[in-house]
Amino acid sequence: MSKSKSNGQKKEHKKQTGKNREIVVLTCFFVGIFLFLIGYLIYFQVVRGEEIANSPYNRKRQNLLAEKVVRGEIVSANGEVLARTIVDEDGNETREYPYGRMFSHVVGYSLNGGSGLEAAYNIRLLRSHSFFLERIKNSLTDTKNIGDRLVTTLDTGLQTAAYDALGDNEGAIVVMRPKTGEVLAMVSKPDFNPNNIEEMWDYFTSEEGENDSSLVNRATQGLYPPGSTFKILTTLGYLKQNEDQYENYEYVCDGHIEVDGEVINCYHNTAHGTLNLRRSFALSCNSSFVHIGLSLNRKQMNSLCNSFLFNRSLPIVLPYSQSTFEMDQNMTHEKLMQTVIGQGDTLVTPLHMAMIVSAIANDGTMMAPYFIDHIENDSGDVVKTYKPSVAASNLLTEREAQILTDFMQDVIEEGTATSLKNDDYSVAGKTGSAEYGEEKGNSHSWFVCFAPASDPEIVVSVIIEGGGSGSDYGVPIARKVLNEYFYGTD
Amino acid sequence: MTAIITVIARYLMIVLIAVYTLQSFTVFRKKTEAERQPVYKSQLVEMLLLHFIAYVVMYLHTHDLLLIFYYIAQITYLTATMIAFRMIYPKLSRLLMNHMYMLLLIGFIVLTRLDAEKSMKQFSIAALATFLSLLVPVIIRKARFLRNWTWVYCILGAGLLVAVAVLGSETFGSKINFTIGGVTFSPNEFVKIIFVFFVAAIYSKATTFKTVVLATVLAAAHILILVVSRDLGSALIYFVVYMSMMFIATKRFAYLFGGLLSFSGAACAAYFLFSHVRVRVLTWTTPFEIIKNDTSQLAQSLFAIGTGGFFGSGLYEGIPNTIPVAAADFIFSVICEELGTLFGICIILICLGCFVMFAKTALQTEDLFYKLVGFGLAVVFIFQVFLTIGGGTKFIPLTGVTLPLVSYGGTSLISSLILFAIMQGLYILNQDEGESNENVQKQIERSEKRA
Question: How far apart are CA B137 and CA B414, in angstroms?
Answer without folding.
Answer: 15
